[in-house]
């Protein structure tokens, strides 16, 4: 997962800009009355996340009066997502915050949308709250569907609050039989608290990172195996040097938990592979 600086956008300001072009004056007035409640909800989210208390935020399909799920969904869908609408500037700013345009939840696919950490269908008051909106690929957004944490462990990593990109917590192993393939799994640092380890596993499983990383690693390996065989045949040390260089380069440029760095690290540490197993592929 990639860390992103928490947005400095104020929830109330985003909301008011989104509803600024509402023509129905009665509806607009009803919206405006909700602005302080929306700001308070965003602050509550911001306060509870570091304490792993997001699950304590109550679900409420009504914000205030006649403003509920339908009305808040309309604000997000038609007044924030829609190009040309006042709130679209904020939508694009949040999307563009992802490094290199890559989804921070999986670090592989391109950002296509904003994911509501707490789904707007259950927490409509947070529909346009910046802290609840994460740039994401379509698949990661779909995987969550309308899931929400019911305890601290189920609080998946959030790019604005959790910084785990520089600590190695994802590993892989090569399965040396037909059909060959890599298997990715979570192995957290020993100094992490148990709840952080549990959250890491939950994040990894929730976004199906094993399946995603494995598919890419298998393809990369197929394309590189002949090169690695040739290097080994020239001299075993040349294969080791190649794997070490490949791992170091990808770790430094893509991150220690990138599927690429993890893949090459797993091969580098696989004694069977570097001592001749490479020739079996």
Describe the structure.
This is HNH endonuclease. The strands form 3 sheets. The protein has a two-stranded antiparallel ribbon with strand order 1-2. It has a two-stranded antiparallel sheet with strand order 3-4. Strands 5-6 form a two-stranded antiparallel sheet. α1 runs antiparallel to α3. The protein contains 11 helices and 6 strands. Helix content is 47%, strand content 9%. The protein has 281 residues and is mainly alpha-helical. The protein has 2 domains: 11-144, no CATH class; 170-280, no CATH class. It has helices at 11-18, 25-33, 35-48, 69-81, 88-95, 138-144, 194-206, 209-234, 236-254, 259-268, 271-274, and strands at residues 62-64, 67-68, 113-116, 133-136, 170-175, 181-186. The model has no long low-confidence stretch (mean pLDDT 96).
Descriptive terms for the model:
two-stranded antiparallel sheet, mainly alpha, 2 domains, 281 residues
Low-confidence stretches at least 5 residues in length (pLDDT < 50)? none
Q: What's the assembly state of these chains?
A: single chain
Q: How many individual β-strands? A: 6
Number of helices: 11
Q: How many separate domains?
A: 2
* Helix-strand sequence: HHHEEHHEEHEEHHHHH
Overall 3D shape:
elongated
Order of strands, main sheet, comes to 1-2
Helix residue percentage: 40-55%
Which radius of gyration do the C-alpha atoms yield? 23 Å
Mean pLDDT: 96
* Share in β-strands: 5-15%
Summarize the biggest pleated sheet.
Answer: 2 strands, antiparallel
Organism: Chryseobacterium luteum
Protein name: HNH endonuclease
């Amino acid at each position: 997962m990639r860390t992103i600086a928490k947005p400095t956008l104020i929830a109330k300001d985003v909301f008011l800009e989104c509803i600024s072009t509402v023509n129905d004056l009665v509806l607009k007035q009803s919206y405006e009355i909700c602005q302080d409640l929306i700001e308070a909800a965003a602050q509550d989210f911001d306060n509870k996340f570091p304490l792993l208390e997001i699950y304590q935020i109550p679900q409420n399909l009504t914000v205030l009066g006649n403003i509920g799920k339908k009305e808040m969904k309309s604000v997000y869908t038609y007044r924030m997502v829609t190009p040309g609408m006042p709130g679209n500037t904020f939508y694009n700013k949040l999307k563009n915050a992802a490094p290199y345009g890559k989804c921070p939840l999986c670090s592989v696919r391109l950002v296509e949308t904003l994911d509501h950490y707490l789904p707007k269908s259950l927490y409509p008051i947070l529909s346009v709250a910046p802290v609840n909106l994460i740039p994401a690929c379509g698949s990661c957004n779909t995987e969550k569907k309308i899931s929400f944490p019911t305890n601290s462990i189920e609080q998946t990593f959030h790019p604005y609050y959790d910084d785990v990109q520089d600590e190695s917590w994802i590993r892989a192993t090569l399965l040396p039989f037909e059909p060959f393939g890599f298997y990715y799994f979570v192995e957290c640092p020993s100094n992490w608290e148990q709840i952080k380890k549990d959250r890491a596993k939950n994040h990894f499983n929730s976004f199906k990172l094993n399946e995603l990383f494995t598919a890419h690693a298998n393809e990369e390996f197929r394309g590189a195996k002949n090169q690695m065989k040739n290097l080994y045949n020239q001299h075993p040390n040349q294969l080791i040097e190649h794997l070490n260089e490949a791992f170091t380069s990808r770790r430094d440029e893509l991150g220690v938990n990138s599927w690429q760095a993890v893949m090459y690290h797993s091969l580098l540490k696989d004694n069977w592979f570097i001592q001749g197993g490479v020739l079996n592929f």
